[in-house]
Design a protein that fits this description.
Oligomer: single chain
Low-confidence stretches: none
Structural class: alpha/beta
Strand content: 5-15%
Number of strands: 7
Number of helices: 8
Distance between the termini: 33 Å
Order of helices and strands: EHEHEHEHEHHEHHE
Strand order of the largest sheet: 3-2-1-4-5-6-7
Radius of gyration: 17 Å
CATH topology: Rossmann fold
CATH class: Alpha Beta
Mean pLDDT: 94
Helix content: 40-55%
Largest sheet: 7 strands, parallel
CATH superfamily: NAD(P)-binding Rossmann-like Domain
Shape: globular
Length: about 250
């Protein structure tokens, strides 16, 4: 345990599993109190919260769909009331519904856009109000290598994650004068439930310079950097965590 985030208050969306869970736990290890957002996995979210409390930090679980602005408003207002401040927002909640474009349904397109992009809009819109008043804060948006390089069968996901990157750069310019930083992490192939299907196939590790799949904790380490004062002069950027995939 360290103290890079001591006295910081964070919200992590989609924090009941995978990368979001790892980020929430690492934030707590670094001294932060954390809101664990979930949409359906209440039991898993409570388990993450219990682990954080065992570390001596405060953890609050909040059920909220990032696609619903009223849910997001309530979540962020609750966090601000309970903690007295909101220093860090991690927009991690994500969804993929893969299909070749000719076979992709409108629901598959819209569902991915709503969660990955509309949800980002909702969370940032509400959080920046608080952070601007505080004259400081760090927003970390999870994109993907797919949003940069593209991927067959993921036109919807690539478009949404590419949008996350462009959104980040624009918002960073808007809120920078108020001391609020906005950055993006673009993971490559990370060992999560979302990538299970791909990892069960015959993926060639030689495509990755480091010759291995990434761990969620390795993304969390980068999130700690962006959330902490170590990155005080970093905003509007994309940090790649992909082991050299597609380099």
């Amino acid at each position: 345990m360290s103290n890079l985030l001591v006295n910081k208050k964070a919200i992590v969306t989609g924090a009941s599993r995978g990368i979001g869970k790892s980020i929430a736990l690492e934030f707590a290890k670094q001294g932060a109190d954390v809101v664990i957002n979930y949409n359906s996995s209440k039991e898993a979210a409570e388990q993450v919260a219990a682990e954080i409390r065992n570390l001596g930090r405060v953890a609050l679980t909040v059920k909220a769909s990032v696609t619903e602005f009223s849910d997001v408003q309530k979540m962020i207002c609750y966090a601000a009331e309970e903690f007295g401040q909101v220093d860090i927002l991690v927009n991690n909640a994500g969804l993929s519904r893969d299909a070749l474009l000719m076979m992709m349904t409108e629901d598959a397109w819209q569902g991915v856009m709503d969660t990955n992009l509309k949800g980002l809009f909702h969370c940032c819109k509400e959080a920046v109000r608080i952070m601007i008043r505080q004259k400081g804060g760090s927003i970390i948006n999870l994109a993907s290598l797919t949003g940069i390089a593209g991927q067959a069968g993921q036109c919807n996901y690539a478009a949404a994650k590419g949008g996350v990157i462009a959104f980040t750069k624009s918002l960073a310019q808007e809120v920078g004068p108020f001391g609020v930083r906005v950055n993006t992490i673009a993971p490559g192939l990370i060992k999560t439930k979302m990538t299970e299907r791909l990892l069960q196939g015959s993926f060639d590790l030689k495509r990755i310079a480091l010759r291995r799949i990434g761990e969620p904790e390795e993304v969390a380490d980068v999130a700690v950097f962006l959330a902490s004062d170590m990155s005080n002069y970093v905003t509007g950027t994309v940090l790649h965590v992909n082991g050299g995939l597609y380099m």
